[in-house]
DNA sequence: ACAAAAGTGTTGCTTTTACACCCATGC
DNA sequence: GCATGGGTGTAAAAGCAACACTTTTGT
């Protein structure tokens, strides 16, 4: 037993972690339509408090070790489900972090994923003493190199938002253009011209009208749209990221 | 001994591999100015033949196991130097491949890097029965999932060439605009308008004239340029890739 | 009627693209 | 001179950004 433990310590541990993004209003409420209402939505992420050494007590990204019989993405999904009950609509590999001194205890390499969840999906997260939502750009000091990891994931989210069609991973199957624009504005942190935004989206071929409208607002009823799925070309390499809508 | 071997087999092996790109003319000659001459340059990469099971005899990417006391990038550089004598000007992480069945023997996760080398640097590769250059888009069937990996690396190279300043990693410190354009044409596999290319480069702020010219050609002597290094902003995230020119 | 957001039109500016043309050198 | 690539000019086309204006609902 001590022998096998020594050998294990002499090998490199392989873990996965995931940066999960969701949009919530400034107060942190995901209930109701989180985007498109008055309060401007912002990017939040859930963190878990470490309950053992090292770095016990600090907030950290959800994650865990990779089992022998599961893929890297499979490990990410399993750990996500176990620690946060979340099953994200979008999940993509971010980067492998493996500096020698990034974990004080044993040598650890973490394959980090990043995920987007819809507001209704985000509701599944059972909050508690050790699980909380945090605004993405005002985080406390996290465990290990997790601050750097979140910064990088945020950069990737904002960069990719500008040239690909990942925004719909924050929304339901049907959405108005105002809601879609709200996603872009929340992530990019700047207002967008509604008229120009509409034309860009319509001419991109990424969305199509469903035929339905939303009544009930004290204004003209907006049309509903859905994603066509013709836009994978833009951001997919030979690895074909899975946008399992 | 058999005990520790069993425990090791029960853990996940961590390896690094690297896709190395260089430009060579159609016949595969890197001597002389590989770009800017008559023959259109194309993308080549060096492969090594596996000399042990599994997949013995097949061509594969250079790589090896990660040692306990070295970083991932350090492991990539060490393996590169050991198996190919190459010290690339540009080296960046590509992706972590970790499917359960990607290696028939033991469970193996490979952190793959991609690298760019200059023609003169590429000369250092000592060719032999088990080390050869191959044109990037007509490869034989490689070991493991290495065909998929090369395809992805090629896609990243071509994508990144369009919005960042990595082209100079294929060139020396000083270069003419025709040579630089030759790099773009070789990688993107399409001719570019010399006049417009010049203006785009000059207005980008990425290059500046050295003052020197190249005499000897049977035409007007072209000016020499160098990279300014002001363009890291474009492609760097919080991870600050090292373009150690 | 009025407020509010949906949706359309128009204009000016910047960027891209295509291609004509002049410049400097070796032979 | 003439061939060859280096380098400049220019104009049409396309894309982008700003903003005025019309439409349709709830109250």
Keywords:
homodimer, 245 residues, alpha+beta, Nucleoside Triphosphate Pyrophosphohydrolase, two-stranded antiparallel sheet, DNA-binding
Element order, helices and strands of chain A?
Answer: HEEEEHEEHEHHHEEH
What oligomeric state best describes the polypeptide chains here?
homodimer
**How does CATH name the architecture of chain A?**
Alpha-Beta Complex
Average of pLDDT of chain A: 88
* Whole-angstrom Rg of chain A: 20 Å
Main structural class of chain A: alpha+beta
CATH homologous superfamily caption of chain A: Nucleoside Triphosphate Pyrophosphohydrolase
CATH topology of chain A: Nucleoside Triphosphate Pyrophosphohydrolase
Question: How many domains comprise the coordinates of chain A?
Answer: 1
Please count the beta strands of chain A (DSSP E, at least 2 residues each). 9
Strand content of chain A: 15-25%
Number of helices of chain A: 7
Intertermini distance of chain A = 46 Å
The low-pLDDT segments of chain A are none
Largest sheet of chain A: 7 strands, mixed
Which CATH C-level class of chain A is it? Alpha Beta
Name the shape of chain A in a single word.
elongated
Q: Give the % helix of chain A.
A: 25-40%
Biggest interchain interface, per-side counts: A-B, 32 and 32 residues
Characterize the structure shown:
- 2 copies of one chain form a homodimer.
- The first copy, chain A, has 245 residues and is an alpha+beta fold.
- Chain A starts with a helix and ends in a 10-residue tail after the last helix.
- In chain A, strands 1, 2, 3, 4, 5, 6 and 7 form a 7-stranded mixed β-sheet that branches. A two-stranded antiparallel sheet of chain A has the order 8-9.
- Chain A has a single domain (2-235), classed as Alpha-Beta Complex (Nucleoside Triphosphate Pyrophosphohydrolase), CATH 3.90.79.10.
- The first copy, chain A, has 7 helices and 9 strands, in the order αββββαββαβαααββα.
- The model of chain A has no long low-confidence stretch (mean pLDDT 88).
- The first copy, chain A, binds a DNA duplex (27 and 27 nucleotides) through residues 176-178, 193-196, 198-200, 215-223.
- Chains A, B: Residues 11-158 form the Nudix hydrolase domain.
- Chains A, B: InterPro entries: NUDIX_hydrolase-like_dom_sf, NUDIX_hydrolase_dom, WH-like_DNA-bd_sf, WH_DNA-bd_sf, WHD_NrtR.
- Chains A, B: This is 8-oxo-dGTP diphosphatase.
- Chains A, B: Pfam families: NUDIX (PF00293), WHD_NrtR (PF21906).
């Amino acid at each position: 037993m001590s022998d096998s433990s020594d050998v294990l310590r002499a090998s490199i541990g392989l873990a996965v972690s995931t940066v999960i993004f969701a949009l919530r209003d400034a107060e942190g409420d995901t209930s109701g339509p989180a985007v498109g209402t008055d309060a401007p939505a912002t990017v939040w992420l859930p963190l878990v408090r470490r309950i053992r050494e090292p770095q016990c007590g600090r907030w950290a990204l959800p994650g865990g070790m990779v089992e022998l019989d599961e893929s890297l993405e499979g490990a990410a999904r399993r750990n996500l489900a176990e620690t946060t009950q979340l099953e994200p609509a979008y999940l993509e590999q971010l980067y492998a972090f493996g500096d020698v001194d990034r974990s004080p205890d044993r040598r650890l390499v973490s394959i980090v994923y990043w995920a987007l969840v819809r507001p209704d999906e985000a509701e599944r997260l059972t909050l508690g003493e050790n699980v909380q939502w945090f605004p993405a750009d005002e985080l406390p000091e996290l465990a290990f190199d997790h601050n750097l990891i979140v910064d990088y994931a945020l950069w990737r989210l904002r960069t990719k938002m500008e040239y690909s069609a990942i925004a719909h991973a924050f929304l339901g199957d049907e959405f108005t253009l105002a809601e879609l624009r709200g996603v872009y504005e929340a992530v990019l942190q700047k207002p967008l011209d509604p008229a120009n935004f509409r034309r860009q989206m319509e001419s991109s071929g990424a969305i199509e009208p469903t035929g339905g409208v939303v009544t009930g607002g004290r204004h003209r009823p907006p049309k509903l749209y859905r994603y066509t799925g013709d836009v994978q070309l833009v951001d997919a390499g030979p690895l074909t990221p899975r946008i399992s809508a």
